[in-house]
Amino acid sequence: MSEYLTIRKEVRVKVPVGACRFIASVGFCQDEEEAKEFIQQVKGEFPNATHNAFAYKIGTEDSVITRLSDADEPAGTAGSSLLSAVEKAGLTNVVIVGTRYFGGVKLGIGGLIRAYRSCGEVGLKEAGTREKRLFKKYDITFDYDYIGQVMNEIPVCLGEIQDVDYSSKVKVQFLMPPENLEDFKGKFKDITRGSGSLAE
Prior knowledge:
The protein is an alpha+beta fold and 200 residues long. The protein has five helices and eleven strands, in the order βββαββαβαββαββαβ. The chain folds into two domains: 130 residues, Ribosomal Protein S5, domain 2 (2-Layer Sandwich); 65 residues, Alpha-Beta Plaits, CATH 3.30.70.240. It is elongated and about 70 Å long.
């Protein structure tokens, strides 16, 4: 069974560092779109902050995605320090925004690295950890004749329906553990008599 370690809850924590004020905002994300939405939301809440640096990690094993931004802090001080906190904790599907309000005293390169790493670590500690099952996103398209059977079969294979588009055909976007996909594919093919399509 595919499982991974991630945060238990979304949190926001104030982290005082000298005269500066840091705020760690930690969120859960299934994909890059969710991570970017979280980052924009935090930036919108703290538009007057001196910096809103961020880092996120999504996926496991050979499909890991990591992104970071120093947000105009000296290169290698902010985003990489937040990401290192995530890596050290062994977590994934996590996004952290480190918000900094300048307090009038420069921290220097080493001080910034320590401050942002501390910001990430304090935020992650507050967020806690939990194991989650690995899900991937899939799309299926099929005729209306089969809607009842198909929609019932998705949760049977431990899938979670995300979106349904009722156009000329039914289009369903859902999440499912990868190890259950082959079983679902067979059932989907039988139900739709081979007329449905599935995109990974």
